[in-house]
Amino acid sequence: MKFYILFLLSLLIAIPSNAQEINSEEATAVKPKIVKNTFQSTYIINMHSVEIVPKNYLQFMVAHHFGNVWTKGLPTGQNFAQILGLNSGIAKTYVSLDYSPSNFGNMGIALAGNLSFEGWVKFKLVRQQTGSKNIPVSISWLTLTNVNTQEDPSNNENPNYTSWNKFSFLHQLIIARKLNSKFSVQIAPTMVHYNIVPYGINNDNNIFSVTWGGKYQVKPNTAITLEYSRQINMYEDILSSSGAIENFNPNLFALGVEFNSGGHVFQFYIGNTTDATNITQLSRNTNFIKDGHLALGFRLNRSFFVGKE
Asked: Model pTM?
């Protein structure tokens, strides 16, 4: 796995750009040309993209994950009655607001479903550019905090349990490159940290994964998107809080199409998760593709300028 990560990172950086080399004397006279719109949205599908909204913009976003299109083991009639998961009664909604006080920083809050809430900060560290500087990639950093307010009666008997145990965190380094006007790629090593996990074999507070993403611009306002994430540890024979052994699917896949109307970005997708938050998607995904566990979903965002004209 480490070999593949290093290989993809080197591929992102090694692909030649179209910029011509310039000497140090010319560099002072050439302005940097910043690469824009590596992705059309701050999300590719489920995962954050390298992008943030521009300075003084407020973004409202709603994401919805429906139930599985087809569930192995259910009677055929019941599967048809669920109408591709749209009528199954299982749906997760993610509602967020985020704001960028600068072109390099973004902060947001969200209702993450199942009585959980999230907040995050996202920084654009490096911007892909040519000219006086030739930087082949854009790099962002994301730190996200999730708090689950659900009560667990079993924890009331634990004298060491505190409200701090309800928190979990996600840290992600996002590296992206716009290869040309149509094709962009991204890789994002990620760590999810749980403040508390059940004691037992194969459990760990820190869960690592790697996400690959891409976008192909079919038309000026239409793009095809793709995501694949691989969980590296803590997905087999995990002890749950009830003492049962659980197995999670380490592979998270999604395919989508997005439409940019100028003021809105509409995203429609299918993938093997019904969870709304990246923390559970990248650490506790229970949907296995081999069992037909694919679910439809959509995301809608709208940005508003809230600064001074």
From this structure: 0.86
